[in-house]
Structures are given as structure tokens and as C-alpha cells.
Design a protein that fits this description.
Layout (H helix, E strand, L loop, with lengths): L9 E4 L5 E2 L13 E2 H5 L3 E9 L6 E6 L16 E8 L5 E7 H6 L28 E10 L5 E13 L7 E8 L2 E7 L6 E9 L15 E2 L52 E2 L16 E6 L5 E5 L7 E9 L11 E3 L7 H7 L20 H22 L1
Parallel strand pairs: 3-9
Antiparallel strand pairs: 1-4, 2-4, 4-7, 5-6, 5-8, 8-9, 10-11, 11-16, 12-15, 12-17, 13-14, 17-18
Helix pairs in contact: 3-4
């Protein structure tokens, strides 16, 4: 039997006194909201309360999207609220309550459970198709009597939780630069985006030690492991005069060529990115993070500090306002490389004209646009011819 106090107990909670066990993410935006990382870390929120007339009545903490002071919301076959802290009788004016994040997001309601602690790791990963919008929830710190009625004088605290990151961006392409790669993509359609994070395999500083190699394999841009190449069979050599005879196929007159898109920095269609760590549609491992860009409408960015001529597999993921990282975009790969402009190539090939395009005109007259274009094309052609001869 609980001894009823002379007057109903009361509780006071100061917002600034609430503390979190973990600091896994940037707390500058919505610091007390709950995200997936908080759940994975089994974060605990501590609530220091000041209680008066505390003798005798236990305190319970219930969570829900409705008023949990009504006991019908806490009982029956379809309750709206769930318990997140077990009964405890305050023994002094300073009373501290700890609530597990997993119990908040798990929503394990009676009659399945009547005690806190039912939240599990599985509750951190909602079923596919779950909305990525934040879910509002209020915690009710209540003094409960034997009839499960709430005695006036409790306090409430509202927050939100979001365990699902933004949907994946699409259409990622890469452009080459000196020790950097430029990224362009089609934005995610989610409205709670705060920006995008970039993920690289190998991570910066780990070139040559990861799964990536300097060769592109089959299955480009898919982020899947390449199919193993079939063992080569040594063919019987044939004399050219015997072409067409049994066992000697006729020689093809067409040159075998392989198309390579060197301008965009993306891999050719059908060639794969050498990664076993980045997969389109999956949530990335934070250790492969290599950059970010802010903004709801961002569609481009750069990854800098890379090693020239090293192959990088890259994908991006959106980040929402709670700090959840979404699923990866398509995976692309490229190698950073120094970029030579026209005049640098022209000089290296032996060009002697100076001063740029305008110096080709007569003194006091601007060179015509058509004349400049013709000279540029001619000079570029000479650069290409000389480079081919040197090759």
C-alpha cells in the first residue's frame, strides 16, 4: 500500500538540464531529436527533476503521441502510449530519471509489455517503405496511484525521432581534376534534406591498401562485385597463308578498339568499379566518408585531397535535418589527373606565340573571332600530331 501524501506531488524539469549519453552527431540542429545513430548506440537521455511532496507515490514515464495522463491511453488491447521508465518512488527532492532511446522508438505497448526495457537493436531499423518524416512523441513524467490514475503535478517533455535517412540521389557522374574529382548528380526528392555526404573507396590516405585497384572490371557503376573473368584458353596459332582453313579463322579486317570516356572521368559502359565496400541502395559505413556539401537543392560538389592516377569508387548519400545518412546513389569510379589547358599544351608542343589570342591581331586592331577560332584549331591540331609522333 502506498501512503498517500497530504498533497499531490509535483515535479519540475528544466530543459537545459537534460543530457544525452552519446555525442555521435552534430548537435547544432535539433539537438534533442533522436536519429538512427542514437538508437544504434543505445543512447540514454537523463532527466534531472525537482520533486515536492514526493513521499509515497511512484513515478512512471510513458511516451505517446496523445495525452498519456488518461489511463485508457495506457491500458486495454490497443493502447496509444507505452512505458519508457519503470515505477520509482522519489526519495528526495532531486530525482533523476533515465530513458533509453530504444524504448522511445520501439513503441512496445501493453499488453505485450508493462515494463520499460523492451526496446531492441532491431527497433533502430524500420521496415522498408517507412516514411522518413520525423515522428513527434511526448514523454509524460507522472505520479501514478494504485488505480493507475495519474495524480496532478507531473511534467511532460516533447521531442521527435527519425530513423530513416533521405532517399538515394541518382545520376551520379564524375569529372577529373588535379588531385580531385568533381561530382554531379540528380537531387533526392526528400524535403527534409540538409545536404549530401560523399563516400570514397579507398578512403583518402588509404590509397593502395584497400580493395580498390587501378583497373576497371566488368559491371561499371553498379557498385556490385565484378564477375570473375573466365580462364583464357590458349589458341593455336595459324600461318596467315592458311587463313580460312579448318581451325584457322579468317583474319578480321576491322581494328579492335575500346571506347573510353576520358573527358567526363566516368568509367565506360560495361566496366565495373573495383569496390566491395560501396553498394547502391545501402547505408554507407562512415569510415568511407570523404566530403560533403550543404543545401537542399545541391547537385554538385568536389572531393579533394586525392592521389592522381589512383582509382576511386565514389557514391553519395543525402543527410536529413536530424543527421540521418540515407542510402547510397549509384557508384561511379575515376582517377584524378592533372588537367592541361590549351596554352600549356601549345607551349609544351613547341608553340612560340605569346600573349594569348589577341596577340595574333595587327597592332591597334582586334583579331576577328573567326580568325582566332581557325588559329586555335590549327594550333591544337599541331599539338595532337606532335603528341602522336612522340607516343
Amino acid at each position: 500500500m502506498y501512503a498517500m501524501p497530504a498533497q499531490a506531488a509535483t515535479a519540475t524539469l528544466t530543459e537545459s538540464s537534460i543530457s544525452r549519453q552519446t555525442g555521435l552527431r552534430d548537435q547544432s540542429k535539433n539537438p534533442m531529436w533522436i536519429n538512427r545513430d542514437d538508437c544504434l548506440a543505445d543512447d540514454i537521455i537523463t532527466f534531472p527533476l525537482y520533486v515536492t511532496e514526493y513521499a509515497g507515490l511512484p513515478m512512471e514515464v510513458w511516451a505517446g503521441g496523445v495525452d498519456c495522463k488518461d489511463k485508457t491511453a495506457r491500458q486495454g488491447t490497443a493502447p496509444s502510449c507505452w512505458i519508457v521508465a519503470n515505477s520509482a518512488v522519489p526519495t528526495s527532492a532531486s530525482h533523476t530519471v533515465q530513458v533509453r532511446v530504444r524504448d522511445i522508438v520501439g513503441q512496445h505497448k501493453p499488453p505485450d509489455t508493462t515494463k520499460a526495457g523492451a526496446g531492441t537493436l532491431e527497433d533502430c531499423t524500420p521496415e522498408s517503405g517507412t516514411s522518413s518524416a520525423p515522428v513527434g512523441v511526448t514523454l509524460f513524467f507522472m505520479f501514478i496511484d494504485q488505480a493507475s490514475n495519474e495524480q496532478q503535478g507531473g511534467v511532460s517533455w516533447a521531442t521527435k525521432y527519425d530513423l530513416v535517412g533521405p532517399s538515394a540521389a541518382s545520376g551520379l557522374t564524375l569529372g577529373q581534376g588535379d588531385t580531385m574529382l568533381k561530382l554531379d548528380w540528380t537531387a533526392s526528392t526528400d524535403t527534409d534534406l540538409s545536404g549530401y555526404q560523399f563516400f570514397c573507396d579507398p578512403p583518402r590516405g588509404s590509397e593502395g591498401t584497400g580493395s580498390n585497384t587501378n583497373e576497371f572490371e566488368a559491371g561499371a557503376g553498379t557498385g556490385t562485385e565484378p564477375e570473375p573473368a573466365e580462364a583464357s584458353v590458349e589458341e593455336e596459332t595459324c600461318d596467315p597463308e592458311d587463313a580460312g582453313e579448318a581451325g584457322c579463322p579468317e583474319a578480321s579486317t576491322e581494328a579492335s578498339t575500346t571506347e573510353t570516356d576520358t573527358g567526363s572521368g566516368t568509367t565506360p559502359e560495361g566496366n565495373g568499379c573495383p569496390t566491395v565496400n560501396l553498394f547502391a541502395g545501402e547505408i554507407p559505413d562512415a569510415k568511407f566518408y570523404c566530403g560533403s556539401v550543404s543545401g537542399l537543392t545541391a547537385t554538385s560538389g568536389k572531393v579533394t585531397g586525392l592521389v592522381n592516377d589512383s582509382t576511386y569508387s565514389i557514391a553519395i548519400a543525402g543527410v536529413d535535418t536530424v543527421g540521418n545518412v540515407g542510402r547510397l546513389s549509384n557508384v561511379q569510379c575515376a582517377q584524378p589527373s592533372p588537367v592541361d589547358d590549351f596554352f600549356k599544351l601549345y607551349k609544351e608542343a613547341g608553340g612560340e606565340a605569346g600573349g594569348g589570342f589577341c596577340s595574333t591581331g595587327a597592332v591597334g586592331h582586334r583579331a576577328g573571332t573567326a580568325a582566332l577560332l581557325m588559329m586555335s584549331v590549327a594550333a591544337l591540331a599541331r599539338v595532337v600530331r606532335r603528341r602522336r609522333k612522340d607516343a
